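Slide 14.
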Amino acid sequence: MSLEARDLIRQMSTANPLWGAPRIHGELLKLGIEVSQATVGRCMPWQPKVPSPTWRSFLHNHLTDVAAIDMFVVATATFRLLYAVIVLGHDRRNIIHFDVTAHPSQDWLARQMIEAFPWDTAPRYLLRDRDAAYGQRFRDRVQAMGIHEVVTAPRSPWQNAYVERIIGSIRRECLDYIIIFDEHHLRRTLSSYVEYYHRTRTHLSLDKDCPQTRPISSPTGGKIIALPEVGGLHHRYERRAA
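Slide 15: predicted structure.
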């Protein structure tokens, strides 16, 4: 048996810890490598037990079933505090819903869940922190919608990293450069940024694509033009035929 075949068996076994000798043997046959199943078993590295999936693998396998919610505070020009809530889908980093209020009561938050997930669109899991605003009425509403709450540990924002990253991006790329006057102004500004975030902004986690897939222009598609977005803070570049 060649050294390359032995290395390939070890590589397959390490990369696929749930595979046994029969499965690896089948893959080798599909690759044109004639070897017995017993030989495959002897070449596999010893494993004390079938390891459980890592936390990263678990999150990746449940991306379509997980949403996250979080709030952040914005100070207005008159030093009034406004609260914005973000509901984020983990699958494509899609901002499912957002809203603004000066009084984030548990009734208001419960209503946001209904607006974010109408009919039968509710996810299986909702990831949130331990903010006291998520009171009993909010929890009852989430339970009635068939959503299982996953609450992060105290003072552990990294456990809700995706939505925390979105909030950081909103601050760094938008709110840090705009003076907010009132609730209506903040809602309009966030609406403009969310549209830019979905249609234009490329993401490292999405292989430099947008949550709403952005087509690739042909190099011969015409002249490159800049389209201002978010009040000119950012631009979208497209090719337009002359």
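Speaker note: The mean pLDDT is 91.
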